[in-house]
Specification:
- Helix content is about 15%, strand content about 35%.
- The chain has about 350 residues and is α+β, with helices and mostly antiparallel strands.
- A six-stranded antiparallel beta sheet has the order 6-5-18-15-8-9.
- Helix 3 packs across helix 4.
- The two termini are about 20 Å apart.
């Protein structure tokens, strides 16, 4: 029988600095393009509260307890852990390590008897754990082993089970678990952990040191909800979707379909988190003239698919959402696909 770790992050708030960054709550983004907006360098919030006061110790939520009961009933040895920093996440992930390798690399154990369930209040929290998995197991380019797949920069990451903590996210807001058709009932999640098989999925890495599971949406709107124009050079492999000279309304970088539509506009047509490609779209306002000479604005959506995408802002900061976590892009950002790099337990 298996040892099962039920991992919950210490807060459902997505901290801009990342889990454990400057004492922030778990579940946030990372990289140079994100910076805390409510914390000073001393770890105090602008309102004078400490991070400890904003990230209190939580008791396990009801779905976590129900999943633990279901696992115990099947004879699994269950431990619930609440991680409030990157170091505490890493301590859990270390249980998935394989035996020492001759090259000294830390590698996941393909035959591990320990299985991990991540209780998530948001896709950003799931990403926070996957980011730590990548950091743990991705070798430096100078130490690339010969047994690493040629189209990847990291080995097969250990499968994880996802326990959504908010059933409402399966409805109007389709989180990644809903898109993948993963179970949401705690007993069904327990069954997937013990009886399921790994379903391998693509992962997007980026040069900011983070990962993307679902996708990213770049752009912003004003207080009235009108989209704001911005400019950036957007390339997918050898295809240029925008050279940076014309205004853009939005750019979607899709591994899955969370950002496939924007209002009533279809941006991504067929995002597939297991096809080995990233789908990218830009929405460009184009002025056209009618037969009567009247001008009107038509929205043109340009799309491309490939292995990698880069976005280079031409002016100012470009707001974005990446797996639901807010940030601002101030310099070139590149994403590339890692085919089948991570996996979920599925029945």
């Amino acid at each position: 029988m298996y040892d099962v770790v039920l991992l919950t992050l210490g807060s459902e708030r997505d901290a801009p600095g990342g889990c454990g960054s400057g004492g922030a709550c778990c579940g946030g983004a990372t990289g140079a393009d994100t910076a805390p907006t409510s914390q000073t360098d001393t770890g105090q919030t602008s309102a004078g509260q400490t991070d400890t006061e904003q990230c209190p110790t939580e008791r396990p939520r009801v779905p976590v307890l129900a999943c633990a009961d279901a696992l115990n009933a099947r004879g699994a040895r269950v431990e619930t852990v609440t991680a409030r920093s990157d170091a505490e996440i890493d301590a859990v992930l270390a249980r998935l390590d394989g035996p020492p390798r001759p090259d000294g690399l830390t590698w996941p154990d393909p035959d591990s008897k320990t299985r991990l369930v991540i209780a998530t209040a948001s896709d950003g929290q799931l990403r926070a754990v996957l980011r730590r998995l990548v950091k743990r197991y991705a070798p430096a380019p100078s130490k690339r082993p010969t047994d690493l797949p040629g189209n990847r920069t990291l080995p097969d990451l250990p499968p994880v089970a996802v326990l959504p903590l908010d059933p409402a996210r399966a409805g109007t807001h389709r989180d990644l678990a809903a898109q993948l058709g993963l179970p949401r009932d705690p007993a069904a999640v327990a069954a997937a952990v013990l009886d399921g098989t790994p379903r391998r999925l693509d992962l997007l890495r980026n040069d900011g040191g983070s990962v993307t599971l679902d996708g990213a949406l770049l752009g912003a709107a004003d207080d009235a909800g009108r989209p704001l124009h911005w400019r950036a050079r957007v390339e997918v492999d050898d295809t240029i979707l925008s050279d940076g000279a014309e205004p853009l309304l939005a750019c979607a970088v899709g591994n899955a379909g969370g950002y496939a539509t924007l209002d009533d506009v279809t941006l991504l047509t067929a995002p597939d988190p297991a096809d080995g490609e990233v789908e990218v779209a830009v929405a460009v306002p184009v002025v056209v003239r009618s037969a009567w000479g009247r001008k009107r604005v038509r929205l043109e959506v340009r799309r491309a698919r490939g292995r990698a995408v880069s976005v280079l802002p031409r002016e100012g900061k470009v707001p974005y959402l990446d797996d639901g976590v807010e940030g601002e892009l101030t310099r070139k950002r590149s994403w590339w696909i890692e085919p089948g790099a991570w996996a979920v337990w599925s029945i």
